[in-house]
Design a protein that fits this description.
By secondary structure, this protein is of the alpha/beta class. The protein has two domains: 265 residues, Aconitase, domain 3 (2-Layer Sandwich); 153 residues, 2-Layer Sandwich (Aconitase, domain 3). It is 31% helix and 16% strand. The protein has 16 helices and 18 strands. Strands 5-4-3-6-7 form a five-stranded parallel β-sheet, with helices on both faces. Helix 2 links the parallel strand 3 and strand 4. The longest helix has 17 residues.
Amino acid sequence: MSSTLFDKVWDAHVVRKIKDGPDVFFIDRHLIHEVTSPVAFLGLKNRGIKVMEPQRTFATADHNTPTINQHLPVNDPLSANQLKALEENSKEHGIVHWGLGHEKNGIVHVVGPENGITLPGATIVCGDSHTSTHGAFGAIAFGIGTSEVEMVLSTQCIMQPKPKKMRINVEGSLNKGVTSKDVALYIISKLSTSGATGYFVEYSGNVFTEMSMEGRMTVCNLSIEMGARGGMIAPDEKTFTYIKGRHFTPKGDEWDTALTYWKTLKTDKDAIFDKEYTFKASDIEPMITYGTNPGMGMGISNHIPSASNVEGGSATYEKSLNYMGFGEGEAMIGKKIDFVFVGSCTNGRIEDFRAFASIVKGRQKADGVTVWLVPGSHEVEKQIKEEGILDIITAAGFVLRQPGCSACLAMNDDKVPAGKYAVSTSNRNFEGRQGPGSRTLLSSPLVAAAAAVTGEVTDPRSLL
């Protein structure tokens, strides 16, 4: 019987099927951070049990961490306590821990792939919704809640119903200035934020096979924003080249054995999906969001749609536009902005900073605009310096900050003030996501760079 990539990986990890219930599902890699793990460890302590397979769990500090002066004590008491708890819990249970200042520290979904923790055919969970990022390697990866974090720590398994299967095909050649982030935002704008609810998505077509691994990670990262349980892309030579030789990647004969298996991880030709969509690459232009969910996005040269052309009722739509201070039919190009944020698990990799530098090189930061450039890890920070990108952005008047989640979710000091507009390369633009009352416009690093040097929403194609 023909199988999809998703079927092959899922079925290989089912420990036991429960009739009319969820599967008992084995987890290969468990990623933890300081926000969703303390209560889970407290649960273990109260039950008097240990982590079952600590070598499969990896801890990094990212959500609450400051992005300047990381050598100083963390000011916020709650954040400081959570960071300390992560360190102490990791030490007690023999878990790899990369805290502030560690050379491997960074955003959980950036350091996982960087260090070879993320592998094709693996099952990966984390108490963070954007765990779907790791699906770029042909892994099944999804976010879990705190009680499930405790379940995985104690049993290395999770109770999980098998999702339905969706395939999204994008074929053709991408236009000038169109990035992986634009492809993802375009798909979400077509399917809506609930269009893939209940499904696990496989991305297929030449657009995805031609993407870099960084680009694939961006696409899979945003799967959750259209309601999907996760997203994945079949591994290929580009995948194998990326992961070979990394710290936790198999070596020697183990590599050869793993590679033989990984090459079987692709959807059979006549496999059937529950739902399938196909889009043309030529229809996609640089994207920008104008509302309060990632589905409210459009090509940057377009005008904000009228309520009559939007599904779901005008009241909610008008409420969203009122929050943003925008009106139906308005152009986005030319709207003044106050902040620019480049970073997060969506766009905090070296490719993203290369894109940003390609726009700002030879130009200057716009007056009155605050710009936060936050690498996703110390490894990315190191690459920025080695490749001369730091020299370019410094000459343009920008400052590079230290790794962390930063303004993506404002659980740290990087908060956008109420009423201010931020062009952000992160993943969510909900009301107050980047700070109480903040207004977020999601974009690619190219669109963010164009805004950073002009002080307004600008089509990056005019600056390339």
